[in-house]
Amino acid sequence: MKAYKELEKLAKNFERLPGVGKKTALRYTHAILEKYSLNDVEQFASELVNIKKNISKCKVCGLTTFNNICDVCEDHTKDRSKILVVKDSKDAMIIDATNAYNGVYHVLGALISIVDGVGPNDINLETLEERVKNNKVDEVILAIPFTPNGETTALFIEKVLAEYNVKTTRIGYGLPAFGDIQYIDELTLIRALENKR
Fold it and tell me: Which of 39, 93, 148, 157 is least crowded, fewest Cβ atoms below 10 Å from its Cβ?
C-alpha cells in the first residue's frame, strides 16, 4: 500500500524523538492525518523550521536563545556571583520556572560518559572555567542528575574549579538517586535549591 509507506516515512521521523516507539509514532502520524487541517500542518511545519533556523546557543552560558546572548545573561537583576550548572536548557527552564533561584546558568550540553564516548572536552566546560576565572563568581551550584555519569561529571568539574577561589556546591535534598530534573515536581526542586550542600 503506497499510502501506508508514506505514513511510515513520517512515523520514522517521530520515532527519532526520545521516548517515542513505533506504535506511538504511528498514532502521532494518524492523528496528524485525521485531526489536523492542511493549515495546521503548514503552521506546525513552519514552526519547526523557524526554531531550527533561529534558535541557537547563548555564547555566554549555552542556554537556547533567539539571540547571541540569552535573556538570563542579559538580565542585570540576576545575581551573577552564582552560576547554576545544568546538563541541558530544559533543566534550566524548569528550575527558572520555580522562581527559587535568581542567579545565572551554565549549560554543559552533555554529561561525561566513557561508554557513550563523551569526554571532558565534549561538554561545555571550558567556558564555565573562563566565567569563573574572569568574573566575580562566589559559588558554582551543580544541578546535574544524580547518576553515575552525573557524579563523574560533578567530580570532574569540582576538580577543575578547585584552583579558583569559588565555592562549589550541589543541590541535593529532595532529589531522588538516579532522578532527572525534568521529572521532578516544583516543590521538590525548591527544597533542593534551598538545601544545597
Answer: 39
What backbone phi and psi angles, to 5 degrees, belong to 105?
Answer: -120, 165
Q: Are 104 and 133 in contact (CB under 8 A)?
A: no
Phi, psi for residue 118 in degrees, rounded to 5: -105, 110
Kindly give, in sequence order, each residue whose CB lies less than 8 Å from that of residue 151, ignoring residues fewer than 6 positions away. Answer: none
Answer whether 0.85 is exceeded by the pTM.
no
**pLDDT, tens digit only, all 197 positions of the chain:** 677 788 899 999 999 999 999 999 999 999 999 999 999 999 999 999 999 999 999 999 999 999 899 999 999 999 999 999 999 999 999 999 999 999 999 999 999 998 889 999 999 999 999 999 988 899 999 999 878 898 899 999 999 999 998 999 988 656 666 677 777 777 677 767 766 65
